[in-house]
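Recall that a protein's primary structure is simply its ordered list of amino acids. Everything else, from secondary elements to tertiary packing, is in principle encoded there. The following example makes that idea concrete.
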Amino acid sequence: MSAKTLKTNKASLEGEIKVPGDKSISHRAVMFGSIAEGITHVENFLPGEDCLSTISCFRKLGVVISQNGSEVTVFGKGIDGLVRPEETLYVGNSGTTIRLMMGILSGLPFETRLEGDESIARRPMTRVTIPLSEMGARIAGRNNGEFTPLTVNGGDLSGITYHLPVASAQVKSAILLAGLQASGETVIIEPVKTRDHTERMIKQFGGEVERKDDTVKITGGQALKGTSINIPGDISSAAFFLVAGAVVPGSDIVLKNVGLNPTRTGILDVLEAMGADILISPYDNDAAEPAGDIRVKYSKLNATTIEGELIPRLIDEIPVIALLATQAEGRTVIKDAAELKVKETNRIDTVVNELSKLGVNIEATDDGMIINGMQSLDGGTVSAHGDHRIGMMLSIAALLCENEVILEQSEAVAVSYPAFYDDLYQLMKK
């Protein structure tokens, strides 16, 4: 594990960068390309560790996948063409991989074993295994299937109507992927609308899925066809530079080709509510996923409350939003975000503990945090705790610190943004 020393020099950030391809869409492009019939070409794929885990799993299932940096070609063989893997499918640190994979494997007539790293071993899986078991899959694992390693025995699924107990795009997607293979209709009712990349991609591959208000329906037995996908930049990765541009004095940044899917743009709503100087220029095209350029400049900010239906639209951005709030006038409250406790780390406690080491006045609550604004940050030794979003947030925090920051486990950022530090240093102006 490596430690990186981040020396503060009060540099402003100026210039233009293109953030890497969207992680959620990259995962799904490989998955749908693998279960579709024919060739799928993927451009601007994110070659981060999580997405490479997805490629590895499908190769073990017999799919030929070529990858050259951000260019990927998947030689799909249809879902019935997947074969029983000779070894355990290892998902690394990727919750998206394991949960969506379970949906696919639940409909296949063989046994598969899944496991991941120590972080995955702590993340709850019953939210996925319960509905898949109701559909007919047989899933066993540690603590009655709550934790990995898991074994999936699939086949002969039946559609169900399922009320999601928590707003989770991963759970919804797993059920939809199982529903593609189930007899009859599968109906999912969400408490709050979550990111809809899976629904969009089903249509992109020639399938049909129906959305009305809080309900999603899919009919089993559909065959998907290979296609071409150009993945927009990941707004969750862009969020770190959006916040940096807003809080570091003198900054002026342009982020090119950022995904603007409305189920993911909560970070932009927060920035606008806090008074950030931000300009969004959407592209005028008919792409399956909307995208555009975003320009952000340093400005004075005001505190806000972040809660309710906004939370699923920015759940991955909350660590850096907490940093944003330290530079706003007033007290920012984040609530209804208990889901943060079951991410790569308990992100409520981790954000509070690590920012506190830098001198931030921040308080954890049962479902979020309270951050006092207009704070000066000191410096010190902090840790990413193996969590990519914590590592990147602390790296941006270092730009505001009076003294140097030593970031332990800095390699965690490679999970979703391998070139993060290259892009950060490119933007720094003395």
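The chain has two domains: 3-21+232-429, 23-230. The domain at 3-21+232-429 is CATH 3.65.10.10 (UDP-n-acetylglucosamine1-carboxyvinyl-transferase; Chain).
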